[in-house]
Design brief:
Strand content: 35-45%
Number of strands: 52
Shape: globular
Helix content: under 10%
Structural class: mainly beta
Largest sheet: 16 strands, parallel, barrel
Distance between the termini: 24 Å
Number of helices: 4
Strand order of the largest sheet: 5-7-10-13-16-19-22-25-28-26-23-20-17-14-11-8
Radius of gyration: 26 Å
Length: 708
């Protein structure tokens, strides 16, 4: 693969709609050619400012944002803010978004939100490269007397630092003076590396008056004195849905615990007011039991009979704690309900909690305790729950309504008939296959896949892989089953390039089960280059991530595929990239799930496209040549999808000069389409467990196809 230019690039994980009011900073002329503060002050409210720099946008200062704006890192840019306080004031009925920024040293977002306002803090990164420069401050949200519903969304942020001051939190929400505030904390990675000498929570929610709703899904929170602190300190009510999160201490280089004795993963102090909680599918680990750590702790001292509080606990894993569970400490009119299916291991006292028949005391078999809490094959946590239908209620109403159905890796929460205990769902399989025939067909040799007659694999061609030759295969691909073996083939029935390599993603789950994200579409009529897919969980849902592969069952489709959402039909469509009509009986394997930090849309921009390729910037792909990304071509969701904007067969390759993966057009000459009114978008999926496994001294799953 020809290397053209060396440049740092990035991927925007959320596809932002086209905005004719957008301005760029720094601009060549005008008020946005000076400082970022001047650009903010002179840009009309309601506009978008794209911050197009990889350098330091501001250092050792305060940036004030007191009007409705979207402040976005430009596609493939990393604007840096060093020792900066972002002073945000979200006025009544207004919205502010901060997305894609790099915060260094003692930088923070300090925000005050008002009536019916909206604050979005998305895809930002906090780091502390120099501890002497001060601690990482993170995100500090406070409220005034709120009328209506105010929403704060913090999603896909990474915060790593040392919170050495007592009472500090990297994410802190203080709801004061009444009203209703809804907090969404989704897919954040927050790590406090310090030993904390006094009470401290890495994430802390305090409700002084009014209603505070908290939706926490798919977060990894590590370290500190306490990972999650919940305090109801005055009349009002607090609701929390804690779903699919990891809460754990951290281990230093000498393999010793760096959290203080008597810490709790969850510390709830409800001194007055009403509390409602759902705690489901979480992994809670004290790391080392001799640290005196507790798992879940509740203190309802002062709780009275005038209001009732209730919380539900099911499908969690709690390990390595001095006390696995501390139930209500005093207080009245408080009830705890266990839905069972919890796993306790290497634990001490369980107080105020009645073990259910479905709860078990067993080693959950983590891949690497203290580092990777995904499950090994054979874990008793796999398929621990009763049927999936029992657990869908978690997302049906109240504070958990519309929560993303993802685990802590950002992949599907529901696979197969049952749900695993803990934060991570087991089961997907990734196969690296090298063509073993000079004909148009190559047989897969993975025994687990071949044993599944109803599998729905997805296929992505890989140009290179460490230790193997670099091979193009500029043909549309399909997959089919014959003689008890799954096989890949070129749909045009041309000879497959010898030694061509393919990533076969074999998603675990029931066949044609929309709830599992798997379905097979049949085009019964034929005669068109695109068709609508009537899939219940995809209909009316343009934010889903959709992947398709040709499936042969007697009808060829000599074209590669792409997907796009039709707002007119409220359905997703699948079509040919070259505009060739499909015959009746054409079939496709379809995989879909909610968008996440690891399942996202890659936007092709002038800053990441070079000739026939576009670089992806993702922490699991960068510097990792053994990753196996899955890619499907897509169209921008600005309205009716326009297919054929990049009418080429695509693949992925690893650039060992820039140490990044890229998507490329297989013909090696045609420029890849840059995002315009329609096009320049690819759906990308990365499995963190595949990445972890392939980097082990003895890789798991990697060479399961037998060509090692």
């Amino acid at each position: 693969m020809k290397k053209i230019i060396n440049q740092t690039i990035a991927t925007l994980f959320i596809l932002v709609s086209s905005n004719v009011l957008a301005v760029d900073w720094p601009a060549a002329t005008g008020t946005c050619s000076t400082t970022l503060q001047t650009c903010i002050d002179t840009t009309s409210a309601g506009n978008t400012i794209n911050i197009n720099t990889n350098g330091i946008a501001l250092s050792s200062a305060t940036l004030t944002v007191h009007k409705e704006l979207k402040l976005l890192a430009g596609v493939s840019y990393h604007p840096r803010f060093v020792n900066v306080v972002i002073d945000v004031d979200v006025a009544d009925n207004k919205s502010i978004t901060i997305q894609g920024w790099e915060f260094e040293q003692a930088s923070s977002i300090v925000a005050l939100v008002h009536n019916d306002s909206e604050l979005n803090i998305l895809n930002n990164n906090w780091s502390q490269p120099d501890s002497a420069a001060g601690q990482v401050e993170g995100i500090n949200i406070s409220t005034q007397a709120v009328v209506g519903l105010t929403t704060v969304t913090m999603r896909n942020n990474t915060i790593v630092g040392s919170g050495s001051n007592a009472g500090n939190a990297f994410v802190r929400v203080f709801h004061n003076l009444g009203g209703t505030v809804f907090i969404k904390l989704i897919e954040n990675r927050i790590t406090d590396q310090d030993v904390i000498p006094a009470n401290n929570a890495v994430v802390q929610f305090i409700n002084r008056a009014g209603s505070l709703g908290i939706q926490m899904v798919g977060n990894e929170i590590r370290g500190g004195y306490t990972q999650l602190g919940l305090s109801q300190i005055a009349a009002g009510n607090m609701e929390i849905g804690l779903i699919s999160n990891l809460l754990t201490g951290v281990i230093d280089e000498s393999n010793s615990i760096t959290t203080n004795a008597s810490n709790k993963a969850i510390d709830s102090n409800i001194s007055i007011g009403q509390f409602y909680g759902i705690f489901a599918h979480n992994t809670i680990d004290g790391v080392k039991r001799d640290a005196g750590s507790d798992g879940i702790g509740f203190d309802f001292s002062g709780h009275t009979t005038s209001v009732s509080s209730i919380y539900y606990i099911f499908n969690n894993i709690v390990t390595n704690t001095t006390q696995a569970y501390l139930g209500p400490a005093s207080g009245t009119n408080v009830s705890e309900t266990s839905g069972g299916n919890n796993i306790f291991y290497n634990h001490g006292t369980i107080s105020g909690f009645s073990l259910q028949f479905s709860d078990i005391l067993a080693d959950p078999m983590f891949k690497n305790e203290g580092v990777n809490y995904a499950l090994k094959a054979g874990s008793p946590a796999i398929d621990k729950s009763v049927s999936i239908a029992t657990h869908t209620d978690v997302h049906d109403s109240g504070v958990t309504a519309d929560a993303p159905d993802i685990d802590a890796d950002g992949l599907r929460r529901y696979k197969g008939e049952f749900v695993d205990a803990g934060a991570y769902e087991w089961g997907d399989r990734h196969i690296l296959h090298q063509a073993n025939s000079a004909a148009s067909i190559t047989a897969l040799t993975d025994s687990a896949l071949n044993a599944d007659t109803n599998a729905m694999p997805q296929v992505t061609q890989i140009w290179n892989y460490p230790g193997f030759s670099d091979v193009y295969n500029d043909y549309p691909l399909g997959i089919y089953r014959s003689g008890g073996i799954w096989r890949l083939f070129n749909e045009e029935q041309t000879s497959m390039s010898n030694n061509a390599k393919y990533h076969v993603f074999y998603p675990y789950g029931q066949t044609s089960d929309d709830f599992n994200g798997l379905t097979r579409i049949v085009y019964p009529i034929g005669g068109s280059a695109q068709i609508s897919m009537d899939v219940p969980l995809l209909n009316n849902n343009p934010d889903k991530q959709v992947y398709v592969s040709n499936f042969w069952d007697g009808v060829y489709n000599p074209s590669s595929l792409e997907v796009g959402y039709s707002s007119a039909a409220s359905k997703w469509k699948v079509g040919t990239v070259n505009g060739v009509s499909m015959d009746a009986g054409t079939k496709f394997n379809v995989y879909h799930q909610d968008t996440s930090r690891n399942v996202f849309r890659h936007i092709v921009s002038t800053n990441n496209a070079f000739g026939n390729l576009s670089y992806i910037d993702h922490p699991l792909l960068n510097n990792n040549p053994c990753a196996l990304p899955t890619v499907t071509q897509a169209t921008a969701t600005f309205g009716e999808p326009v297919f054929e904007e990049n009418p080429f067969n695509i693949g992925v390759f690893y650039d060992d000069f820039d140490n990044k993966w890229a998507i490329f057009n297989q013909d090696a000459t045609s420029p890849i389409t840059i995002l315009a009114a329609a096009g320049g978008v690819f759906n990308v999926m990365i499995d963190p467990q595949q990445v972890y496994d392939c980097n082990q001294p003895v890789p798991e799953l990697l060479f399961s196809d037998g060509f090692e």
